[in-house]
Amino acid sequence: MKPTGFYKLTQNYFDIIKQIGGTYRDNKERPIYCCMHDKKCADIYWAIPTSDISHRASEQLERIKRLCVLPERDIRSCYYHLGHTNRPAIFRISSVLPVTDKYISSEYTSQGIHLELRNNKAGIAHRSARNPCREPEVNSVSLTRALPARRVVTRR
To answer: Minimal CA–CA distance to 138: which of 154, 122, 126, 125?
Structure first.
C-alpha cells in the first residue's frame, strides 16, 4: 500500500472486527483511502472509508452537507468530506481504520488504473485523520479535477 492510494479490504478484516465485538457494514467492496503511515508502527496505515453519494437519501445528503459547512471550531465539521473517487463520494473521516497490507485484497481501480489522489496539497483526509482538532489547513483534494477547497479548523 502507499499513501494516496485507494484499496479494497479483505473479508477477513471485517470478520476480525466482528470477532472482537465491533461492527462495520460494508458488503459492497467500497474503496478505502490510504491516507498515511502510523508514526509509531510502520506496518499500520490509516485508511478512510468512502461511500458513493448517488444512493443517499436527500435527507442524509443534506445532513452531511450541513455538517461539512459548520463553523470551523465545531468538531462535527470534520466528520465527513465530500469529494471524488472515480465518482462523487463521501470520505467518512470519523470512521478512519487501522489497516495493514495483509488485509488489502486489491487496489481499487477505475478503467483498469489504480485510483490515487493527485495534487493533494495536505488534503483534508491527511489533516483530519492525523488530528482533526489541531491543525488549521486549507484543504484541496483532486483526482481528475480540482475539488472545492474547504477550511477545517476545530478546537480541543
So the answer is: 122
